[in-house]
Amino acid sequence: MGIQALRIQHAGRLLLVFRHFPRASIHPNARLAAAAAEAAAAQGEFWTMHHHLLNHQAALGPEELWMHARDLGLDTGRFERDRASADVAARIERDVTSGTRSGVKATPTLFVNSIPHDGPRTLESLRAALLAAGLG
User: pTM of the prediction?
Assistant: First the structure.
């Protein structure tokens, strides 16, 4: 997709914000995966878990999520408590509400200056969108 390359190229001028938008009708374990990512975030490992879950999309059940946390070296007891916490559930619900209000219909959805990027998710297209928004 090129987001990492853009983050490096525009260091200090580009803010990447991630919001959860689990779509259980398409991915039955999406909310479980979102909670796992947030539980990992509490241990400073959001992106590590996020990428791990993307690479293991067929293994997102509760037991498998625990194994992912173990494999990543997380404190699994804390991971389980955080994953089941009201704070994590509220964070995901806030993200869903915000995404719905913003017009998110699919994942991932990228925004440039609060405007959905409907173009291809290529480095060239994203770079053009940043330039058009005056961020280039």
Answer: 0.85
